[in-house]
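For reproducibility, we list the full input for the adenosine-5'-triphosphate complex.
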Amino acid sequence: MIKEKWLDLVIQNPMLIEITRFRRRYTSASATSSMNGVVVLLCIICYATLLLVVIQNRTSISPIVMIFAQTAFLTVLAPMLLYGSISGERERRSWDLLLVAPITKPQIVVGKFMGAMAALGVAVILFQVPIEIAATSYDRSHWQSVLVADLVSVTFLMCVCALTILFSARVKRSLMALGATLGSLVTILIVFPALVGLGQSGPATDAAFFLHPFVVLSRIGDRDDAISRNGAGTVGPGTSQPDFPSNVPAPWWGWPQTLTYLGLTIVLLAWASNTLNFAENEVKFLPQGHKDA
Amino acid sequence: MLEVKNLRKEYAGLTAVQGISFNLHPGDIFGFIGSNGAGKTTTIRMIATLLEPTAGTAILNGADIRRDTMEVRRMIGYMPDFFGLYDDVKVWEYLDFFAAIYRVPTKQRGEVIDSVLELTNLTIKKDAFVQSLSRGMQQRLCLARCLVHDPTLLLLDEPASGLDPRARAELKELIAELGRMGKIVIVSSHILPELADFCNTVGIIERGELLAFGPVSKIVTEMQPHRVLAVQVLGAAADFVGPIADMPNVLSAVAVGEGDLRVEFSGDLEAQADFLAKLVGKGMRVATFREDSADLEDVFLKLTTGALN
Ligand SMILES: Nc1ncnc2c1ncn2[C@@H]1O[C@H](COP(=O)(O)OP(=O)(O)OP(=O)(O)O)[C@@H](O)[C@H]1O
Ligand SMILES: [Mg+2]
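The corresponding predicted structure, in tokenized form, follows.
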């Protein structure tokens, strides 16, 4: 069953042509004159600056901090890539053309998702350069931690992509999808933690932020620091963890979140394609001003 | 072969299509005619598997639009009454995208794209951006997109709207060519004369009902079971009305203007020739004698206003 789904949605999914479409959109000749061109140029400038900063301060920048930066940057970028993925097709009215094609709605959703993941994948690979530079020069880093932190980062980004597709499938206008996605990300990642008081009451509230990617990354960094100071045995399960500033045991930071994010991604994608099932032909999903609206 | 069986669509409080049925065969070009809101788009979208029918179904080469949806989708090319183009891609990239979605093998795609561009006369625009095309070219690109997977049934919803006369003529030629290739083509329009000359079958829909279906000539005869003969005579036409009205097969005769008569005639061509001989025999000086072929526009208006009243 799972193998069939995998074949249907990933291996033999004709919508994977979305990957090519993403590539063409950002590399085609007109890119320099359009909005996309500006985005690409900005990214290149940011990337070059980042590389320079890392190379100059390579002994004092932890790779975890770089992964932190990667997560923050791509969390904003992912919704930009995807907010129009479905509502935009509806606005352009190219949506019907996908619906009459011999593909299923889950295939469409997965195709859009993979397209964006391919684009983000390129960004993640680019980020690996500064991360590796930092990892090799920073003395308190451990490659397992870098790997786990990277996985947390990537799976969280998958969640963000799936969330954006879900919003894009549920609202009328693509700008509304962008607003809703960024709004909910800001709420989850910044407003909610500020209200609950992250940082004020310290480690005690950590359990509440078990799934907060930036908290997870900080704890992975803290764990590295603790290991460097006291040796590997000190932060294992059952130890007193004198230097680990959290009430959640150190091994709980990393893998559990990665798996949760993966599960959440699948749930969100399934939800998005179910939304399409009932949204088909429904007048309320057509943009205002449209003749059938 | 396409069999449409009792296809019906109800929206809340409104029946858009009231159970229509018809059959089409390969090579048929079917003109689907109706005024605004008649139910053309609704019918086409149901056949295209975009709308679920309330009742009835359509069967395309054995595949049912409700049960074998994917199979039907592989066989149809649907061109909506709007473009739905992506604006940030080139013409060939756009076609490549849809060819991929229709599972045209990667190796063949280049060839397929070239041939549909050739067919729709867009070869020179292959590397142009879609948004730089004129309206007529975009329309042709939409048609090219419907053709990448070599569909059996083409559903073209008002393909001629917004085109200039020249582009219209080219489009008609292209559609006729598709018919010759053995495809079933359904073309919708508001205007019967626009379609009459290249469709071999027409259907007139009004308020969701198929009022007439068949070859254009058949529909015209159905609408006008009697011939109308226009006779121009030298002298006062009014004087001849009486004698003509008494002749066999003549249903009515009226004088229109100085020397023109309109005669409603029920006989066949044989009787029509005899009628002319009689006129001349009675000493009428007949200048012209012809059948007043029914104006398609009139037929259409007659049919549709009949439905509205
Ligand atoms: N989503 C919908 N909800 C409710 N009623 C609808 C919907 N779509 C169409 N209708 C109604 O169904 C009827 C038929 O519409 P349809 O679009 O099929 O007409 P049409 O023949 O294509 O007209 P036009 O020439 O204007 O394109 C109209 O009365 C329309 O108002
Ligand atoms: Mg219509």
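The CA atoms of residues 215 and 277 of chain B lie 33 Å apart. DSSP finds eleven helices and 14 strands in chain B. Both points were considered when choosing residues for closer inspection.
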